[in-house]
Amino acid sequence: MNEQNTAAARPLDRRPPLLKALLAADVPDAVDTVVAFGAHPDDIDFGASGTLARWAAAGVAVHFVVMTKGDAGGFDPAERLGLEDTRRAEQEAAARAVGALSVRVWEEADGHLAPSDRLQRDVVRVLRELGPQLVLAPHPERDYERYQRSHPDHLACGEIVARAVYPALENPFAYPELEEEGLHAYRLRHLWFYGAPAARENRFVDVSEQLPTKLTALRSHLSQHPDVAAMESFVTRQLRAQGERGGLGPDVAAEAFHATEVNTAQTIAGF
Q: Where does the sequence pass through the membrane (predicted)?
């Protein structure tokens, strides 16, 4: 078992006591728990924090898992010492702004993330602990139109999650030690990728009302933004471009996803 990636999540805000209408929040049917994965602190906030804030406000339990400690980020050489702690604190503040219940930051090295059986098992462990019906991750396919979106760690994170949710998550024989711990196999339905190439986008969520929350979450990552105003302008333009691309209108801010279903009513049995 990889000890560095199995520490308990840090609890954040509690779920709101009054649940809003889930359908009005574009939450897929029968989803009450979501786990969002990112390669670095700030990935989830760039890719999906508006949607997650919308769902959290509707009563969905939202959890963040960040695979690397972000130690290769930032711009100031004088800030290298203690950067890992800074980025963890930034991610916790951002997740709190979004309304997440917990955040886990793993100890993988920034810039060196790669698919492995160890990390696949760590993902399976987290998912069996939290039991989400919907999982979010960076898209594992390179985007040649926006090359910098396809950081190797992003691609690796998406691939690790994709491998974990099928078949290992639902196969009780994949990691018998997890079954022995009481972490039982189950079938995931929804797997959504953010940061997808435009040709793969098939789900757009209106986050116009959540745009201030998204920008607040992104501002939490001050170590990564040498020009906060430029970052906010870029993000806002991109969201509105996605709203128009998704047919929601030119003034609608939207987050875009490649939404897939791992298991449906038509899925046959077997691993």
A: none
